[in-house]
């Protein structure tokens, strides 16, 4: 699992504070990932296999991140994103190697977002996640994907 | 670096919260370091497409041998990855005995490399699910076993070894993919080999291996093979000749991995 845990600089001041703070930070990142898995759960009934490969981390408002992903023509993929910040708006979209929007479907509801792609060609794609709007300085996210 | 990357993307990808995403983005805004985040697919992602394209004889693709003689840590990591890939082939073949044998081997190789604890639960689950012929669960447990091994290696600061696990699985998966496409060639089947960035990613990982691993003859051989595969999979239509060539090279490597 690829995790990008936050490293707030002020924590470095005191080791004791560091230890006390890191534990809840892990918990929050895991919470965000749990929401991503929750988002994926209904799709499992539709025969999607959810991969163990998952991402979790934090981003600021209007900040985005891209993941380079090999996808195969013939498969039907969903990428599911979740956050533990209930009032945040997040998004996930999929672009081909030339930067063209390539998804066949996408949606955003509450603290979840998802995008679907049936690749027209096997190759590399960019999965772009973004924190659109959030009341917190940093917003934890989790991202998982599945295929059938 | 990652911070700079995300900040840069924030500018490149500014669309409103309620609006539609842009129809096109400038991918040149993505620095080359994004390759760090390349996702290595599990073989079943490719095998599921092959099943849609035809009726491959999965049983014929299973290896009859298993390796009892273990080499150095680099070898074992490659062998572990190749063995997990073998598990996915056995699932496609719906062969419970082979799956159980693979479940035991995954545990054996994990123990040899010092990550037994990360795998034992999954090894048992693989065996239990194979007995019940619960193939979806076997697939999940194989995926989990591989992820846990890689994570355990990363925690032990053995990221390079974790990459070799992925590479071993990719090589075995590619050997089987090319065998099936070679025997029943189609453009769509060959298109599954269109993975230039993934191959480049593995090449890059091998270039950055510590000297101890980089000097290993099998690792060196893989480096040579990857450099030959890159141009073959970077074209729009991958020919039957290229499929055969990739098969020959990956099959040769797998023999070296299985028999150190």
Quick structural overview:
Chain A is of the alpha+beta class. Helix content of chain A is 20%, strand content 47%.
Q: Which assembly state applies to the chains in this document?
A: heterodimer
How many independent structural domains of chain B? 1
Number of strands of chain B: 0
Classify the fold: give the CATH topology of chain A: Jelly Rolls
Task: Name the helicity range of chain B.
Answer: 55-70%
Number of helices of chain B: 13
What is the C-level CATH assignment of chain A?
Answer: Mainly Beta
Mean pLDDT rating of chain B: 87
Terminal Cα span of chain B = 39 Å
Radius of gyration of chain B: 19 Å
The low-confidence runs of chain B, each spanning 5 or more residues with pLDDT under 50, are 1-8, 32-36
- Strand line-up across the major sheet of chain A: 1-2-9-4-7-6
Level of helix content of chain A?
10-25%
Quantity of strands of chain A, as a count: 9
Which structural class best describes the helix and strand composition of chain A? alpha+beta
| Molecular shape of chain A | globular
- The value of Rg of chain A in angstroms is 16 Å
Largest sheet of chain B: none
The SS-based structural class of chain B is mainly alpha
Give the averaged pLDDT of chain A, no decimals: 84
Q: Shape of chain B, please? A: globular
């Amino acid at each position: 699992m690829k995790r990008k845990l936050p490293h707030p600089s002020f924590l470095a001041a005191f080791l004791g504070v560091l230890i006390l703070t890191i534990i809840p930070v892990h918990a929050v990142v895991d919470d965000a990932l749990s929401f991503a898995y929750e988002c994926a759960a209904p799709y499992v009934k539709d025969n999607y296999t959810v991969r163990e490969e998952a991402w979790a981390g934090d981003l600021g408002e209007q900040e985005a991140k891209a993941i380079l992903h090999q996808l195969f023509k013939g498969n039907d993929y969903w990428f599911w994103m979740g956050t533990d910040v209930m009032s945040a708006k997040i998004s996930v979209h999929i672009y081909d190697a030339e930067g063209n929007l390539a998804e066949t479907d996408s949606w955003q509801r509450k603290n979840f977002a998802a995008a679907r792609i049936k690749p027209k060609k096997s190759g590399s794609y960019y999965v772009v996640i973004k924190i659109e709007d959030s009341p917190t300085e940093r917003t934890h996210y989790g991202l998982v994907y599945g295929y059938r | 670096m990652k911070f700079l990357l995300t900040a840069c993307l924030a500018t490149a990808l500014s669309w409103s919260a309620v609006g539609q995403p842009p129809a096109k983005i400038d991918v040149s805004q993505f620095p080359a370091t994004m390759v760090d985040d390349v996702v290595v697919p599990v073989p079943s992602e490719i095998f599921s497409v092959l099943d849609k394209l035809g009726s491959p004889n999965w049983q014929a693709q299973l290896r009859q041998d298993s390796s009892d003689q273990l080499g150095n840590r680099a070898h074992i990591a490659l062998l572990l990855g190749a063995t997990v890939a073998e598990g996915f082939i056995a699932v496609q073949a719906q062969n419970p005995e082979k799956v159980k044998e693979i479940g035991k081997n995954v545990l054996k190789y994990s123990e040899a490399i010092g990550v037994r604890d990360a795998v034992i639960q999954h090894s048992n689950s693989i065996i239990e699910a194979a007995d019940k012929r619960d193939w979806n669960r076997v697939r999940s447990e194989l995926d989990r076993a591989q992820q846990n091994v890689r994570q355990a290696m990363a925690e032990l600061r053995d990221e390079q070894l974790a990459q070799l696990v992925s590479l071993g699985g990719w090589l075995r998966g590619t050997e089987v993919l090319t065998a099936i496409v070679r025997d029943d060639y189609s453009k769509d089947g060959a298109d599954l080999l269109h993975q230039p960035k993934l191959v480049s990613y593995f090449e890059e990982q091998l270039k950055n291996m510590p000297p101890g691993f980089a000097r290993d003859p099998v690792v060196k051989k893989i480096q040579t093979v990857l450099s030959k595969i890159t141009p073959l999979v970077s074209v729009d239509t991958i020919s039957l000749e290229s499929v055969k060539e990739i098969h020959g090279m990956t099959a040769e490597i797998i023999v070296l991995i299985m028999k150190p």
